[in-house]
Every structure is written in structure tokens, then in C-alpha cells.
Amino acid sequence: MKEYEVIIVGGGPAGIFAALTLAEGGANDILLLEQGKCIGERSRQCAGDMLCGWGGAGPTATAS
């Protein structure tokens, strides 16, 4: 099982900017979890798709 330095739950604005700030500060293994659909599966005509997460992080996204 892979280990992460930081796990962030929620890909909203705060989660995404926290991940970016940590990465810029030298964190190597960051896991960002988001319950929403992947960006390619979202529909602009469905409010639930657009309001869950920001930027379309999708169910799991990693930045390292």
C-alpha cells in the first residue's frame, strides 16, 4: 500500500489550494480525494456535477 505525506479530503477550492501550497512547499506525496465524477464525466447541465468539487479533481487525484 502506498503511503502519503498528506491526505486531503475534498477537492473544493480549499482542498485544491491546500494541495498546491503543500506541493510548492516541498511535499512529495499528496493524495487529494474527491467524491465527484471525473471531469470528463461531468455535465454542465446537471448542477450536482458542477457543484461537487472545483476544477474536476475527480474521485482520486494525486500530485507529487
3D architecture notes:
By secondary structure, the protein is an alpha+beta fold. It is built from 2 helices and 3 strands. The chain has helices spanning 13-24, 47-51; strands at residues 6-9, 30-33, 60-63. Strands 1-2-3 form a 3-stranded mixed sheet, covered by helices on one side. Helix 1 (13-24) links the parallel strand 1 (6-9) and strand 2 (30-33). The longest helix is centred in the first third of the chain and has 12 residues, at 13-24. It starts with 5 loop residues before the first strand and ends with a strand.
The fraction of residues in strands falls at 15-25%
| Oligomeric assembly | single chain
Strand segment tally: 3
Q: How many separate helices? A: 2
Sheet of most strands:
3 strands, mixed
**How much helical structure, as a percent, in the residues?**
25-40%
Q: Given the C-alpha coordinates, what overall shape results?
A: elongated
Strands side by side in the biggest sheet: 1-2-3
> Which spans of ≥5 residues are poorly predicted at pLDDT below 50?
54-58
- How would you classify the helix and strand content by structural class? alpha+beta
Mean pLDDT: 75
SSE succession:
EHEHE
What integer value in Å does the Rg equal? 12 Å
- What separation lies between the terminal Cα atoms? 16 Å
